Amino acid sequence: MRQKFNVKNYTKQALHSLFRNAHVAHLKRTSHQIKSQTSKHVQSYLNGMSILDISKKWNHPPSMMARLIIENVTMMPGGDDSGVGVAEKSQMSHPTTEETSDSAIMNTDAKPKSPSRKFITEAVRSPETILGCASDCIIPQYLFSEKKGKRTPLGVGSNYDCQGNDERDRSISRLALEVKEAVDSDPLHGPRHDRERHNIGMEYEWLLEKRLRSMDIPFETEADLRARGTARTPDILLSCPVGLRVRRKDAPIVQTSTTSTNCDEDGRSSSIGGNAKQGNRINNLREELRNINYHDDEYYEWKIVCWIDSKALYGDVETHAKSVLPQVETYVHRFGPGMVLYWFGHAPLSRLGDGHGDVVIWSGDLPDFFLMPTGEFHGRNGRIVIEDDSSDDENGT
Hints:
Elements: H1 12-36, H2 38-46, H3 51-58, H4 62-73, H5 88-93, H6 97-102, H7 117-125, H8 127-130, H9 134-137, H10 174-184, H11 191-214, E1 219-221, H12 222-227, E2 236-247, H13 278-290, E3 300-311, H14 317-335, E4 338-342, E5 359-363, E6 370-371, E7 377-379, E8 382-383, H15 392-395
Parallel strand pairs: 3-4, 4-5
Antiparallel strand pairs: 1-2, 2-3, 6-7, 7-8
């Protein structure tokens, strides 16, 4: 993909995040169409079409299609009082010969309750456990569907009894097998992807904390803030405001050499070079700090940062405007101006809102340095000694 679309400067994580964001936007545009055709999807499943094939036909995530099928063909105590699935009326008004014979086992006077949302979620997470026995979970007049499909399990008899003493009489239902197949085939949605996203988010929050500790910048974590009862907390609340030098929006773009995954529109590097270039980086940083113009600078300006929110994703325009910015603006109201750190890059800054200048948008890694209230600069190894003297080695910078 990087070669085809000439995006070689983007990391694999950035491309994956960008693709998922685009896919979520697609779902928002098409979800109402999928729901309006629910009876057709359920009927296709009852006639033997697999959940995975249905999702491919309608270009819908397999795990989400599995939820829709579970919602409309299963029964479970604790649901709402809305009755059975949406396909029931169509099913009962136009039954086939086989459907009529199979539905004879159902007492038509007793309508089972539809499953609760919690049950559906658990069924998607553990289909073999929750949906393994067809007679326990599938609406009686839909039990005939267990004999259809490519994944019809062995040992399913006409009574669909899962309590037999013989192991062959307790096979897993077709519904459970197809739900598992759909969830395992979904690269962007479902329990597995939710766990992966959570773990990645936690990993980069830990990395942010590690970076700040190495810079000797005091802070409180989200867990610390919640422990003392603070609501709507950013990932990091700095113990004291720090200064951050950023490029002005109206300044011309300056080309810089960088080893980062992408170069932001503000012309700065998204990350810092490797350990092999540590000495040169430190010397260049010292030189840059010596020549900083604190006032009338046509290229750069200083921003105050009181908090940092970590985003292990690519900050595209829609995600930033509709999800991230409304969230972090609440932090501005409570804690003052701050910074959003997009680890996998972001769209051009000219297209991203900054909360009237109170939200700094950064990408790739933390900046090379912050200006502390004492007037000192703090970098990757703590306080940066600008003068090049023998005490440099003692300070590590």
